[in-house]
Design goal:
Blueprint (H helix, E strand, L loop, with lengths): L7 E13 L6 E2 L4 E5 L18 E4 L13 E9 L3 E10 L16 E7 L5 E7 L10 E3 L17 E7 L2 E9 L12 E10 L7
Parallel strand pairs: 1-3
Antiparallel strand pairs: 1-12, 2-3, 4-5, 5-6, 6-11, 7-8, 7-12, 8-9, 10-11
Length: 206
Amino acid sequence: MNMGGLLVSIAVLSSAIALLATAGPAGAVGPAAIAIPRVEGITIDGKAEDWGEGGFRINILGPDVEGPPPQRFDGCLRIGWDDRGLLVLAVVHDTVPFEAAQPDQIWRYDHVYVLVTAPSGEMYEVCVAPGRYPKPSPPRLYAPGDRRKPAADNATAKVTAERTIAPDGYTMELLLPWAAMNITPAIGARMSLRVASGSADEDRRR
């Protein structure tokens, strides 16, 4: 099978970021940097309720973004941080689940992707499959090793990922520890962040 070109991958954030001391307001700070607010009391359990209105919010699809119709694939993300690490909440509407069987193929199908570039220039990259297909299972993590070397060995083992499944999608939470990324969190600390959500449908195989 040729799977080329079947993935719809929406990069919802690709920017320099700076850590903000309080829960808000988030937004632009300094030259070409986005302020990421600190959030408190977040339990990594695949549920969004404890986020409240916290975190920096990004829509997965917007009016100027090419992609599938929102009835098929849509959602939003929240980005925050605490003393433990970088926090990501993904609420994804995806009516047709399809995931790779092999870990090194996770990026080709339904997944959440995070790439952090530390101030040192080291890169920490992880793809997470939600675990909806072919049957419910825990989220599966993969760190591409050849293209970008993660900032620490056994990078995926240090990520906490949990998700809950809905009839039309899933909610996923990720905790990327500062220690695993060789980052010391501090107010105003800057790094680069890229976050994306991807989707591919089984019936589009060829």
